[in-house]
Amino acid sequence: MNRNHISKVDLNLLKSLHALLEEKHVGRAAAKMNVSQSAMSHTLTRLRTTFSDPLFIRNAKGLEPTSYALELSGKLRFILDEIDTLLTPKSLNLATVRCQFRIQTHDFLIATYLADAFRAIKDEAPNIIFDIQILTADSDQKLDKGELEMIIGAGLQANPRFMQKHLADEGLVCLLDKHHPVLANWNSNAIFHYPHIQSSLLDDKDDPVTRYGKEAGLPERQIGLYTETLNSQLALLPNSNLIAFLPMSLARQGQQFYGLELMSCPFPLPVVTIRGIWHERHQNDPVHKWIRDKIDKAFKQLKGNK
């Protein structure tokens, strides 16, 4: 598209293109834009002329974006977000704010911190709908493409191009059945004679327990179970000889709800830093900033109560 001719372009076309990219169907895009299907078909014709590209190929399910349309997708979302920010009033009326806020995070952070934060936010802004997803390997790309509003994670190395906020530091402790035989002789060597639960997201070089055992010349670490999420480890510990190494906030839930034994680790483990991460396009968005501040406040309050 020729930037010199931008004054000739109806910017409503961009909103229609965004709806077509999201829905991949003329009828559904028309419903989303509150126009007739024939009007949306006419708009698609105008879009093809404006961008000098077919943009979509029809298939059995609806529309398949061309490679050029996919290239436009991320830029388009950024442009529309910036326009929304530009037009958002400076003063927020939280009762009338309507939006979907997509977050990827760890399951244990939902249980220990975020559930309280979401309740507090919903009390003041009931029409903010959270879409909570478990962290995936492509979370950075999703943040870039505008498919997420925020990442909240433990031990993440934030990409320098993103904005970030330190939320909390968590120490790692041991959690195990209250009748576990190792409790009679609690030391580093004894711990390595029993099977552990390990996160399947960490390999040996990144797992601090495995690294310590190798550096200290302890017996080879036994893995009894792998779990993708930390929260699932709590239900696996009762009546077993397994040992888990978990953030303190989650271990306290295991102690409270499963009657497990929480023990300080007899060897040093690193502190896990929890960060909130977001794209710079949302830095000055008043709703996004308000949600970030509420989440930050919830983390501080909960850490202060522990």
UniProtKB/TrEMBL annotation:
- Keywords, ordered alphabetically: DNA-binding, Transcription, Transcription regulation
Q: Which domain of life is it from?
A: Bacteria
Note the Pfam families from the entry.
HTH_1, LysR_substrate
Q: Which residues form the HTH lysR-type domain?
A: 9-66
Residues in a coiled coil are none
Keyword Disulfide bond in annotation: no
Which PANTHER family has this protein been placed in?
A: HTH-TYPE TRANSCRIPTIONAL REGULATOR LEUO-RELATED (PTHR30118), TRANSCRIPTIONAL REGULATORY PROTEIN (PTHR30118:SF15)
Q: Which family does it belong to?
A: Belongs to the LysR transcriptional regulatory family.
Name of the protein: LysR family transcriptional regulator
